[in-house]
Amino acid sequence: VQIILGLSNVSFGLKPAARHVLNSVFLDHAVRRGMTGAIVHLSKIMPLHKIPAEEVKVAEDLIFDRRAEGYDPLQAFIALFADRTAESAKVRERPALVEERLKQRIIDGDRIGLEDDLDEAMGKWSPLDIINVHLLDGMKVVGELFGSGQMQLPFVLQSAETMKAAVAYLEPHMEKAAGRAKGTIVLATVKGDVHDIGKNLVDIILTNNGYNVVNLGIKQPLQAILEGAREAGADAIGMSGLLVKSTVIMRENLAEMARLGLDTPVILGGAALTRNYVEEDCTKTYAGGRVAYARDAFDGLGLMDKVAAGTLDDHLDGIAARRGPRKAKADRRVEPPDRALRPVDLDELKLRKADLLGDLAVPEAPFWGPRVIEQVPLRALVPYLSETMLFQFQWGFKKAGRSLDQWRDWATREVRPILNGLLDTCEAEDILHPRAAYGYWPAAAEGNTVILFCDDGQTEAARFTFPRQDRPGGLCIADFVRDVDAGPRDVVALQVVTMGQTASEVARRWFAEHRYKDYLYLHGLGVEMAEALAEYVHKRIRGELGFGHEDAREIRALLKQDYRGARYSFGYPACPNMA
Fold first, then answer.
1. What residues are paired with 266 via a beta bridge?
2. Which of 33, 195, 350, 524 is the most exposed place for a label (fewest CB within 10 A)?
3. Exposed, middle or buried: residue 240 (CB in 10 Å: 0-12, 13-18, 19+)?
4. What would the pLDDT profile of 395-427 be if each residue is shown by its tens digit?
5. What does the domain layout of the chain look like in residue ranges?
6. 181-331: CATH architecture
């Protein structure tokens, strides 16, 4: 069932200023209750967080008819807008006090007229007070709006850009000693990991909330991290990483720091981390210091605020106290005897492999060895782009209470134009350069190891040993490849893809130019276009091996792996070893 609403009828007969507010509040409640489409001009609504709380309350009283003796919500709502114009409702009345204007500029990401307000403010306060009191008040509200789901990540970065512009304008007017930061943190992506978007978002949020951030970059060994912390006099160290292997590196780093007798607080963050892993395993490892888990950039900000205030120990002690009963309960659990883990013997493995492979014939490879695809048209990859991954997880446009269908409708209207514009920019400025290499090798399995052979099928070219799932009947990638003594060699295809170096260079330049929102968009698009290219090449491989006709017809289904075969990526649990 689709519910489409002619929205503006709800406010018919009211003054334009009142209509803007009532339309916006009504739209919010309609979406929450299942409306899938609205007929309304975008100029007739406004973001809910920009509407004063009193106006939202009275609008809701009117919508839900919360009348009482002596209180008519319709009359109360009309009275609120007796002297208001439509434009004043749209942009909100400009606060008379300059400190309130500055705070609102940060919240709205509004840089037009910013320097005039800063000049006026410097007539009353020092530049440092303007930053630490009035501008940071705005960033605090931004964090609250983000945490409650009322502000999306790109608009957080727009606020950060405005904050950065304000600080840059004030800096020449500050005495050198006056610019002391609230605290200093060294950030680094750990050794072997090239992912930096999460770390850089932490950099943006902390920097624009008064902290000195030393961003060491990617693939940083512990020695470089500790040297950076020593030189900066860091109050804390932040380690980041996306890969599963990075979680192991973080723990190894903490063990070495404990061996060296260090006690600098450490904040860990990254997609592969879990709170339990940090608060249990990593905390035990770093016996001499404190280690904390940050789910996102604003978690990191909250932890740094506690470091600066000297309350981190109390905070972590409280977490440990709350975890105690849960951990004791978990420790009392005993696995039943039939769940006990046992090694997989080779005879059992052969039986299981026969069941997995069945009577499938070995596909015929079209060639042996690698080939390079020098050019792939950018637009040919767009159908393979996962908009859900790009919009929600890379760009941070969350569902915010919408159903999946509602979110998709909203993203089509509001977010896809951003994607189309960025694709146009990437083509016009030659930013993305899709290239790939792929090939086929004779292969056989030996236990948990897959052996690749040269064209003759006898000379060993390489071997990869993969982990087995740690449970009875656990599988391993090698289970899906014919045994070395089973007759004809199997076939394994390998591929590697890239969107080119230019994308990384442009993203770094935009970050350095404080174009944070553009940086987020380009970085996310580059990541997901690389995934799209991998899907594109994988589809080509399935076609060349003769079973591409078994693919699902819809690309959305392909992105959910509705095809024969599987594509594994090194660095993830099934094949974590990237050496």
1. 237, 291
2. 33
3. buried
4. 988 877 778 888 888 888 889 999 999 999 999
5. 4-91, 98-176, 181-331, 344-579
6. 3-Layer(aba) Sandwich (3.40)
